[in-house]
Design brief:
The complex is a heterodimer of chains A (246) and B (273). Chain A has 246 residues and is α/β, with parallel strands linked by helices. Chain A is 38% helix and 26% strand. Classes of the chains: A alpha/beta (246), B mainly alpha (273).
Chain lengths: 246, 273
């Protein structure tokens, strides 16, 4: 049995009076790829933001490598270095080149020396086929390239877990595949990943586990074959049929 | 037969010619009315003599220019002080955590007070008040304390401009910084501020133009800068022409600066749209 990398225990989160997460239990093993599916507002993004400690949770526990990271007052910075987050809207820093976007955090947080910074970054850019785009600014890159730079930026911190928040939703259909390829590559390398996604085809092909979220709860959790071919919950069936229609 | 596009071009040309003709005609009409009508006023000869006296303008202009160098000096050394203080106050106001409440409160009070009091009043209060403490030379100079008053007032305005820039940077940029493990300070310094400051350059150019003019307010508390110098000439010659000379000198600086600010603003609009 693989090591448990991340465990969520009865996680609750509300924004004001609106409950967004209502008791999430989930455990993610090392090297596992978990896909979160569900309609907009089901809590997928909020869950990822909570794991990255961008949002404090109201109740429950988040345990990373057997350390509780949801403890109030805990300094979130060292944890965030280990848990990378990639956003739907890329969120690259527009005033910095792709290379500067990638090296900022390793330089300021990990205090890597210049040479190492450059070598690590070049290696990552080359690996994902962007070595000729390193000195471009975000507005000179296509959406797919921007999102790949954003992924490289997160990877440059050597994270143990990567979170992807609908990273292909803002992309033109023909650019989606180049980003999915990056995810496949990471999966092959054994990265532990949690994805919120609407790419049902990709989830079916690449995920180890798929969780169906509805109103802040995981209503169904299974291997992709099982969940997509033979969902138990009526809500899952309803969601899948509406998604697959398009 | 002409092609459609040729007809369209010809039509647009005609429209343009018509527009230029109307504009020229109306401008000429207004100008000639002014030239003809104003001298008809009963006091025109007197006004012309005391405000637009060519000889006096020429004879006082060099000393006005010389006095203007003091304006420029005050302007130049208050600039960095305003920039630094404005930035610090803006950062104070941006503090969100409970521990930093006093800093935020200070920022709010500061901007409220110094934007709420007329500049000239601040200059009087500080420029006369502090030297009244009986400080030793050179610390009793109204020149220093008057400039400080300008710095305090303008940094309050600049702080608000910078704060608007900080708030215009989308929250997702901070989230991206934090998600990478960057501290609040680093996120502000490397991600938010560079974008914020770039966005407020045109607004700050306008502050610069305003400051350049307001330096003349120090004339009320002592330093012989251009307005004061013009006042001296006025008293000696019993003629207001030196004031017109001073106005010309100010315009020579402020008009290009304003145009440049407009240019920056227009450029920014183009880049963002």
């Amino acid at each position: 049995m693989a090591l448990t990398k991340l465990q969520l225990i009865d996680v609750h989160k509300s924004f004001g009076d609106i409950p967004v997460l209502q008791g999430i239990d989930l455990s993610v093993a090392e090297g596992e790829m978990v896909c979160l599916i569900g309609s907009s507002g089901s809590g997928k993004s909020t869950l990822l933001r909570c794991i990255n400690l961008l949002e404090p949770i109201d109740n429950g526990q988040i345990v990373y490598n057997s350390q509780e990271i949801s403890e109030p007052g805990l300094n979130p910075q060292p944890i965030r270095q280990k848990i990378g987050l990639v956003f739907q809207s890329f969120n690259l820093f527009p005033h910095m080149s792709a290379l500067e976007n990638v090296t900022l955090a390793p330089r300021r947080v990990l205090r890597q020396p210049k040479e190492q910074l450059f070598n690590n970054a070049t290696e990552l850019f080359t690996k994902f086929g962007l070595e000729d785009r390193m000195n471009h600014y975000p507005d000179q890159l296509s959406g797919g390239q921007q999102q790949r730079v954003a992924i490289i930026r997160a990877l440059a911190m050597n994270p143990q877990i990567m979170l992807f928040d609908e990273v292909t939703s803002a992309l033109d259909p023909e650019l989606i595949e180049e980003v999915l390829d990056v995810l496949r590559q990471l999966k092959r390398q054994g990265m532990t990943m949690i994805l919120a996604t609407h790419e049902i085809g990709f989830a079916r092909e690449a995920a180890d586990t798929v969780c169906m979220l509805d109103q802040g709860r995981i209503i169904e959790k299974a291997a992709p074959d099982k969940l997509f071919s033979n969902p138990e919950e009526p809500r899952t069936r309803e969601f899948l049929s509406s998604v697959l229609k398009n | 037969m002409k092609s459609r596009s040729a007809t369209r071009v010809a039509f647009e040309k005609k429209q343009k010619r018509k527009g230029v003709a109307i504009a020229t005609l109306s401008t000429l009409l207004v100008l000639s009315a002014l030239v003809v009508l104003v001298p008809q006023a009963p006091g025109w000869t007197k006004v012309k003599n005391s405000f637009f006296n060519g000889d006096i303008l020429v004879s006082t202009f060099p000393s006005l220019l010389k006095a203007f160098t003091l304006d420029i000096a005050i302007f130049l050394w208050s600039l960095p002080a305003i920039a630094i203080l404005g930035l610090l106050i803006a950062l104070c106001r941006d503090q969100k955590s409970a521990v930093m409440f006093p800093l935020r409160m200070f920022g709010i009070l500061y901007t409220d007070i110094f934007r709420g009091v007329p500049v000239i009043l601040t200059i009087f209060l500080i420029g006369f008040g502090v030297p009244g403490l009986g400080l030793p030379r050179p610390w009793n100079s109204p020149y220093i304390w008057g400039t400080l008053a300008l710095v305090l007032t303008y940094s309050a305005y600049v702080a608000e401009v910078i704060r608007s820039g900080i708030e215009s940077v989308h929250e997702s940029q901070r989230a991206a910084g934090h998600s990478l493990g960057l501290s609040h300070g680093d996120t502000m310094r490397y991600i938010v501020l560079p974008q914020a400051l770039r966005r407020v350059v045109p607004a700050n150019m306008n502050m610069l133009v305003a400051l350049q003019k307001d330096v003349a307010l120090l004339s009320f508390i002592g330093p012989v800068e251009i307005l004061r110098q013009a006042g001296v000439h006025k008293s000696l010659l019993a003629n207001f022409t030196p004031y017109v000379g001073a106005a010309i000198i100010f315009l020579a600086i402020t008009i290009p600066a304003t145009r440049y600010a407009d240019y920056l603003l227009a450029k920014q609009h183009r880049e963002r749209s």
